[in-house]
């Protein structure tokens, strides 16, 4: 029996891995489209694009892993039924629960992994992603310089550079600065931007300053290094603002006083916290739903297409109800209990069906054996 259960477990494990990789890749491609616009607009590197996209992967896996388990179990059990391996297992005395237990164990492992992703991996990755996005949006070089174009990042300041080098330096820089009383034109072979928390400076190297004095005279000045103050351009919000998806569990259930000031935002944090704990239960609920449809019943030579179709509709509908309940809980905190109640109720119903029918089958066989021992009267 142990070898048989191990065999059943492997039949579901590899389809789970393949399904999870396929769905994760599809979700990652969809997610990357929204990131691509931001990266291209701010002229960031391909490494930044892939790094930000990969940081979104834990949340995507957390969303799709219950569906991946559901699809893998349906595929594995249907394959065992079609190849008559399930019928052989039943014929040697395996109960429905003994057949189902390998798939339930797989669902439990998936549930534990899902819980770890929700509580630890996702907040860590999303915080890193927010920091990278903040760097992209507040990159002064990308905001004020466009290679081959005259850009005006702020009033009375025009910047031109022929090329942005891979090391972040600008080649062949031309700047016209009329923010002061004297209009100045700067030309330099190279330039680069440095910044700190409250200021930014453009450093030019090997160039000339051209100014027209008040009397109309022209006085060019050569320099090896010259700095231009760009603090006016740093009109960016440098504070890292965390969303509910970026917070750890204790930050969701016990938010700061500032977060509690907005009742709507506070309710959203509480709903997110309950969702983090409740959504892993769908791994077990969907697995038991698939087993209730495909493990019970007689062998069918014509296939199990109808059962699979009904099971798939119910399973995906159940998951959509879970998403809707999370959203509804943000407006009505009393519905948070249903985030746990719905998957737990499905688990209990499916377990009752599997175990109850098993007892009924044992009772039927016992009655048949006793009936066979009763002597038949002769006439």
Strand order of the largest sheet: 1-2-3-4-5-6
Structural class, from helix and strand content? alpha+beta
Coarse shape: elongated
Instruction: Give the percentage of residues in beta strands.
Output: 15-25%
- Helical content (DSSP H or I, runs of 4+): 55-70%
- Average pLDDT confidence is 81
- Could you give a short account of the major beta sheet? 6 strands, antiparallel
Low-confidence stretches: none
Query: How do the helices and strands follow one another from N- to C-terminus?
Result: HHHHHHEEEEEEHHHHHH
The Cα radius of gyration reads: 32 Å
Summed up, the helix count is 12
Number of strands: 6
List keywords for this structure.
alpha+beta; 6 strands; 379 residues; elongated; 12 helices; 6-stranded antiparallel β-sheet
Layout of secondary structure:
Elements: H1 2-41, H2 46-55, H3 57-82, H4 85-91, H5 96-137, H6 140-144, E1 151-154, E2 157-164, E3 170-177, E4 184-195, E5 200-212, E6 218-229, H7 249-253, H8 257-261, H9 263-278, H10 281-294, H11 305-331, H12 336-373
Antiparallel strand pairs: 1-2, 2-3, 3-4, 4-5, 5-6
Structural notes for this entry:
The structure is a single chain. Strands 1-2-3-4-5-6 form a six-stranded antiparallel beta sheet. It is built from twelve helices and six strands. It folds into two domains: 2-137 and 241-373, no CATH class; 143-233, no CATH class. It has helices at 2-41, 46-55, 57-82, 85-91, 96-137, 140-144, 249-253, 257-261, 263-278, 281-294, 305-331, 336-373; strands spanning 151-154, 157-164, 170-177, 184-195, 200-212, 218-229. 62% of the residues lie in helices and 15% in strands. It has 379 residues and is an alpha+beta fold.
């Amino acid at each position: 029996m142990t070898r048989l259960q191990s065999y059943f477990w492997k039949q579901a494990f590899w389809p789970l891995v393949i399904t999870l990789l396929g769905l994760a890749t599809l979700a990652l491609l969809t997610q990357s489209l929204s990131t691509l616009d931001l990266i291209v607009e701010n002229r960031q590197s391909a490494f930044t694009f892939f790094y930000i996209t990969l940081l979104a992967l834990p949340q995507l896996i957390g969303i799709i892993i219950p569906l991946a388990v559901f699809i893998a179990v349906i595929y594995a059990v249907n394959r065992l039924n079609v190849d008559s391996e399930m019928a052989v297992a039943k014929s040697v005395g395996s109960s429905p629960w003994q057949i189902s237990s390998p798939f339930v164990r797989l669902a439990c492992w998936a549930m534990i992994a899902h819980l770890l992703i929700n509580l630890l991996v996702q907040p860590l990755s999303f915080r890193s992603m927010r920091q990278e996005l903040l760097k992209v949006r507040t990159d002064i070089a990308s905001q004020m310089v466009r290679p081959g174009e005259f850009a005006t990042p702020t009033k009375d300041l025009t910047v031109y550079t022929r090329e942005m080098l891979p090391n972040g330096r600008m080649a062949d820089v031309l700047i016209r600065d009329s923010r002061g009383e004297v209009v100045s034109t700067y030309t330099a072979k190279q330039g680069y931007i440095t910044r700190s928390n409250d200021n930014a400076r453009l450093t030019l190297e090997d160039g000339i300053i051209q100014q027209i004095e008040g009397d109309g005279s022209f006085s060019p000045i050569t320099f090896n290094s010259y700095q231009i103050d760009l603090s006016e351009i740093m009109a960016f919000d440098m504070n890292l603002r965390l969303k509910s998806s970026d917070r750890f569990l204790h930050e969701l259930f016990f938010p700061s006083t500032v977060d509690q000031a907005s009742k709507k935002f506070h309710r959203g944090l509480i709903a997110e916290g309950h969702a983090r704990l409740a959504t892993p239960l769908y791994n077990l609920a969907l697995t038991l739903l698939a087993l209730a449809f495909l493990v019970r019943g007689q062998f069918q030579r014509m296939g199990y297409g109808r059962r699979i179709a009904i099971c798939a509709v119910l399973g995906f509908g159940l998951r959509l109800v879970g998403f809707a309940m999370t959203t509804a809980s943000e407006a009505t905190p009393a519905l948070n209990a249903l985030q746990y109640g719905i998957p737990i109720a499905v688990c209990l119903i499916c377990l009752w069906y599997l175990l109850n029918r098993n007892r009924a089958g044992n009772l039927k066989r016992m009655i048949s054996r006793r009936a066979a021992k009763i002597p038949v009267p002769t006439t």
